[in-house]
Design brief:
Elements: H1 21-35, E1 39-49, E2 56-61, E3 66-71, H2 73-76, E4 88-98, E5 103-113, H3 116-132, E6 150-155, H4 160-172, E7 176-181, H5 189-201, E8 214-219, H6 233-240, E9 246-250, H7 258-262, E10 265-266, H8 270-277, H9 281-316, H10 320-359, H11 362-404, H12 407-453, H13 455-460, E11 465-467, E12 485-490, E13 493-500, E14 513-516, H14 527-530
Parallel strand pairs: 3-5, 6-7, 6-8, 8-9, 9-10
Antiparallel strand pairs: 1-2, 1-4, 2-3, 4-5, 11-12, 12-13, 13-14
């Protein structure tokens, strides 16, 4: 213990260097990233989350410990399998620290299942899920066309599969074949197979490219890892939702994938799929010849049978003379009676005419005629009298109306109407002028309000508008990562900046150091090169900060 001259106790001195919190965190980060620049970690996936940024955040755990992990968006798109909770995997990457929260994590570059058992467990889980949705139900499956005109094939163009299938088509039944080339193994193969199935279904009937009548998805044999692309959920859903009947021919007879359950038919080999898709031409010819021969025999047998029936029916019919003998006798008797009947009918009508002729006298006809003529004369005199009176009444009425029509009265009415019209016109002009003034004042007030609420006025007060590379406005710094490019809009223009440092999820608690990558404001010729846009030119429509 030491004391100074005033008797106060002096603090003990130490030779250990002093670090700031940031310096210590930086040294720890540098040490961990150097010592653990590449590691492989085996564990079970716990929490798996994929935010809107596209990065994947997950936990690797065993029965004692948990370590956080992150897969950046660029790496997440190229993964061979999608991380799912409960899957046992082997993750490869490097360790790093997260100084903002004194945590460490593993940045994963590659992830793979931990052995075939994990793949089988994942496959069984997917199979149960899709089966529960009804994608494997038998009632969903469609019958294959007997004689398709166009066959669509989804497979690799460079493998032996397509050559074997084309050889099978040439031997059995030549058809129009459309090949959609895809990768049948690798990171992007599942997406390519899905796009191929959906692309064939989008071909419109009757277009420039013929629409296939049946689809074949084929691949040669391989291990479970090699055939894993056909176990992806997207591929199985595309096969189940295909409007075109689909044949799955993946691997050998003992290999089963999810697309085999979702397809309308499952062939043990690609060559067998080609045989199922089209009939054999020689067999068709043989069958057509057999059907033609059977048809000729059936026609001959039918003609012979009808001929026998006709002969049998002819034996049971009576003779022609027996059929027409009795009707002929009836006709002769009717002819004799007809002549007698005509003579009697003429004699009867002559007697009736003679009776009526004695009753018809000229005086009987003259009396009705004279009565009709007298009736017409009476009606004519009455009509003439009525028309004369009607015409006289109409002439009196017209004379009275003519005396009431005076030019002076009409002139006064016209003058009064013109004065009323002039007054209405003046009132309408004043009303229109007043309304126009009110709308002009309202428009000026709204323009001033718009200028006061515009984000341009906020920029002129010293604020700045931040956008990301996609042009979307950012309201907070959470989620920004190092190297991200931002666009800052000021009142007099725009500049591009780049975020230096920063980690995902550090939020607003950590300030990001920004470096301007744009030049200062230059003449008009250098603005395009520096990424500078003038805010006074009206390049973009006026928006809102809110």
């Amino acid at each position: 213990m030491e004391f100074d001259f005033d008797g106060k106790k002096k603090m003990a001195q130490s030779n250990a260097p002093e670090f700031t919190v940031s310096e210590l965190s930086g040294k720890v980060k540098s040490f961990i990233e150097t010592e653990f620049s590449y590691v492989r970690v085996r564990g079970e996936l716990g929490r798996v989350s994929t935010p809107a940024s596209g990065h994947i955040y997950l936990d690797l755990k065993d029965d004692k410990s948990v370590i956080s992990g992150v897969i950046w968006r660029g790496k997440a798109a190229s993964l061979s399998i999608r991380p799912e909770q409960g899957l046992e995997v082997i993750a490869s990457g490097k360790l790093t620290t997260f100084p903002g929260q004194s945590k460490y994590q593993i940045v994963i570059d590659q992830i793979e299942p931990a052995g075939q058992g994990a793949l089988m467990a994942l496959l069984e889980e997917r199979k149960k899920k899709l089966a529960a949705e009804g994608l494997f139900a038998e009632e969903r499956k469609r019958r294959l066309p007997y004689m398709p005109q166009v066959v669509g094939i989804v497979t690799s163009p460079s493998g032996a599969v397509i050559r074997d299938m084309m050889h099978g088509f040439r031997e059995r039944f030549p058809v129009h074949v459309l090949l959609w080339p895809v990768r049948v193994q690798g990171e992007t193969s599942a997406r390519e197979i899905t796009n191929a199935i959906e692309g064939f279904n989008k071909i419109a009937p009757g277009g420039a490219v013929p629409r296939p009548d049946v689809l074949i998805v084929a691949r040669g044999g391989g291990s479970l890892e090699d055939l894993w692309s056909f176990n992806e959920e997207a591929v199985a859903r595309a096969a189940a939702n295909s409007d075109i009947p689909l044949i799955s021919a993946v691997g050998h007879e003992t290999d089963w994938t999810l697309i085999d359950y979702a397809a309308d038919a499952r062939a043990p080999t690609p060559t067998k799929a080609a045989e199922w898709a089209v009939p054999k031409f020689s067999e068709l010819q043989e069958r057509m010849g057999d059907l033609r021969h059977r048809h000729v025999k059936a026609v001959r047998r039918g003609l012979l049978m009808h001929k026998t029936h006709l002969k049998s029916a002819a034996r049971g019919l009576p003779r022609l003379i027996d059929l027409v003998g009795i009707p002929r006798q009836r006709l002769d008797g009717a002819g004799q009676r007809l002549a007698q009947g005509l003579t009697h009918f003429a004699r009867t009508k002559r007697s009736q005419f003679q009776r009526y002729d004695g009753r018809l006298q000229p005086n009987l006809l003259k009396l009705p005629v004279e009565r009709g003529r007298e009736r017409v004369r009476l009606y004519s005199r009455a009509l003439r009298h009525h028309l004369t009176g009607r015409l006289r009444w109409q002439r009196q009425k017209l004379t009275q109306q003519q005396t009431g029509l005076r030019p002076q009265a009409m002139l006064h009415a016209v003058v009064r109407s013109r004065q009323t019209l002039t007054q209405l016109h003046e009132r309408q002009a004043r009303t229109f002028h007043n309304g126009l003034q009110q709308r002009r004042q309202r428009l000026l007030g709204l323009g001033q309000l718009l200028n006061s609420l515009s984000y341009q006025s906020a920029l002129r007060r010293g604020f700045a508008l931040v956008r990301d590379e996609a042009g979307d406005m950012l309201r907070q710094g959470a989620g920004l990562s190092g190297g991200a490019r931002l666009e800052l809009e000021f009142s007099d223009g725009r500049v591009w900046t780049e975020v230096v440092g920063g980690e995902p999820g550090d939020g607003a608690s950590k300030k990001n150091t920004q470096k301007s990558v744009a030049q200062k404001k230059k003449p008009q010729k250098s603005k395009a090169k520096a990424g500078y846009k003038s805010a006074d030119k009206g390049d973009e429509p006026q928006g809102s900060l809110f």
